[in-house]
């Protein structure tokens, strides 16, 4: 904070989000990154070969849905914060 009371740098919200991401187990994070990449790849193929475009919001929905499927299948286990 400077003399005029202004603050610079990341907001507290951004810091909280970064802390949340860091607290997620690495294996879960890696799986979600893979699902994001896979969804982007599928969207790329749909745009090129099927001339179909969807919004970024739809891609996020796909990643969330696929993550839930993987969690239901037992691939992603709930994170126990006491151990991580």
Give a quick precis of the structure.
With 84 residues, the protein is an all-alpha fold. It has one domain. It has three helices and no strands.
Features:
84 residues; 63% helix; mainly alpha
Description:
This is Os02g0155201 protein. There is one protein chain. With 84 residues, the chain is mainly α. The chain has one domain (26-84). It has three helices and no strands. It has helices spanning 12-23, 26-49, 56-72. Helix 2 (26-49) packs across helix 3. It is flat and about 60 Å long. The mean pLDDT is 77.
Q: Low-confidence parts lasting 5 or more residues at pLDDT below 50?
A: none
Average pLDDT = 77
Q: How is the biggest beta sheet arranged?
A: none
Percent helix = 55-70%
Task: Name the overall outline.
Answer: flat
The ordered string of helix (H) and strand (E) elements is: HHH
Beta-strand residue fraction: under 5%
Number of strands: 0
Q: What oligomeric arrangement do these chains adopt?
A: single chain
Helices, by number, come to: 3
As for the number of domains, it is 1
Rg over CA atoms, rounded to whole Å, is 18 Å
Q: How far apart are the first and last residues' alpha carbons, in Å?
A: 33 Å
Strand-pairing-aware structural class: mainly alpha
